[in-house]
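Pair request: fold both.
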Amino acid sequence: QVQLVESGGGLVQAGDSLRLSCAVSGRPFSRYGMGWFRQAPGKEREFVAAISGSGYRSTSVDSVKGRFTISRDNAKNTVYLEMNSLKAEDAAVYYCAATSLGGDSAYFTTVSAYTYWGQGTQVTVSS
């Protein structure tokens, strides 16, 4: 059974930074593609960023390019989302997710591709 636990959310001001972490149990971690999604009140869950199991391939949604960076440390079974220059519209519950599709070389950008989900961490941005 794979379990994901997010941490690092909080209340920040616009322009500030946060780093979210997602610790994953279950091996081998490097075989799981990982993703970050977010969901604001009244909105659907949306893709933010994804990274392949090896960590060599990653992508992010256009609205966060240049501000957010996804990374992973396979030795620590952890994936990160570094968020800089936060905006009010970035406020949401952020979820990490894992998929065994694609082995260690692919990433996925759709909710349906992911099997395992964390409980979410709240990010609040005051303007």
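--- second member of the pair ---
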Amino acid sequence: QVQLQESGGGMVQSGDSLRLSCVFSGRNFRDYTMAWFRQTPGKEREFVAGIRSRGGHTYYTDSVKGRFTISRDNAENSVYLQMNSLKPEDTAVYYCAADRQIILSSIGSKTAYDYWGQGTQVTVSS
């Protein structure tokens, strides 16, 4: 069974940076597409960034392009989200997600992922 554990959230000011980490266990990490989603109260969980299992191709939602970078370290069974130039609208609970069989058109869909972490809170004040 896949388990995901996020860390790295916190309270920062607008313009600051944070790096989220997600440690994967239970299966072969190299086989899994990984993603970050975020959610605020009363809203749907939304895709932030994704990275494919092979080749490491990355994908981002428009609002974070140029500010956030997703990466993976297969030796450490970890995926990261480097968040720069944070804005108050980035405030959310951030979730790590994993799935072994994701087609490209579904990489941004929360229903395509079978495994989720517990989330880590990111709060950006103005």
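Observation on the second member. The first strand starts at residue 3 and ends at 7.
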